[in-house]
Design a protein that fits this description.
Blueprint (H helix, E strand, L loop, with lengths): L1 H8 L4 E3 L1 H10 L3 E6 L5 H12 L2 E4 L2 H7 L8 E5 L7 H11 L4 E5 L5 H13 L4 E5 L8 H6 L9 E4 L2 H10 L3 E11 L9 E5 L8 H6 L2 E4 L11 H18 L2
Parallel strand pairs: 2-3, 5-6, 5-9, 6-7, 8-9, 8-10
Antiparallel strand pairs: 1-4, 2-4
Length: 253
Amino acid sequence: MEKEKNIKDMPQNIICGRNPVIEALKSGANLDTVYIDGNSGSLGVIRRLAREKGVVVKDADDKKLSRLSGGASHQGVVAEGACGEYVTVEDILAVSQKKGTKPFIIICDEIEDPHNLGAIIRTAETSGADGVIIPKRRSASLNATVFKTSAGAASYVPVARVSNLAACIDTLKDNGVWIYGTDASGTDYSETDFTGGVALVIGSEGFGMSQLIQKKCDFMIKLPMCGKINSLNASVAAGIFMYEVLRQRRGSE
């Protein structure tokens, strides 16, 4: 009975156990991340298969694996299925080409909280952004929490997951997109022209943008801070920037 209870309580996008994960990888299932504890035996095989399939592998202890599996037997490995299909950066660029508009893209630089990523995707959809770009490492992904927090927007907003964010930015620049980093050292966002091709870079919750990504930005913009708190939640700040882009573009039509 306990085993049945554990299976029932296990999230639907989770696969537990060595053989089930191996078969999922071999079949080409849409897996997002493999969490694994160790390298011995079949766990080493799983690591190799995941790398070959381009699936992110993260080390996790027994406590985390048990939490992910809802208490079901995991045998040292849990795979999390993606709740949506990732697209390419070229797919996102094609959105504006099809609409006949300037690109409007959101880049999330190491946004690790799935609630924040879900909220950003939700606002991206409502503000008319063409898509969202996230890195493979040190980032939340298209998991069940992101989908729930996005209130369904993740079903409509194209999301690209890239292994090299800096190289991705170079690709965007080659396609006429200006890169706007968000940092307290920047220019007031209300004094910035967003009517051209725009990619907004939203930094991580605790540390902001990485130094490498900052150097890749064409402009740095900021929000005015008038209170005693000098920062906003990443998704809240992203929403303000996105709607300023929308406001300016609607005004220029």
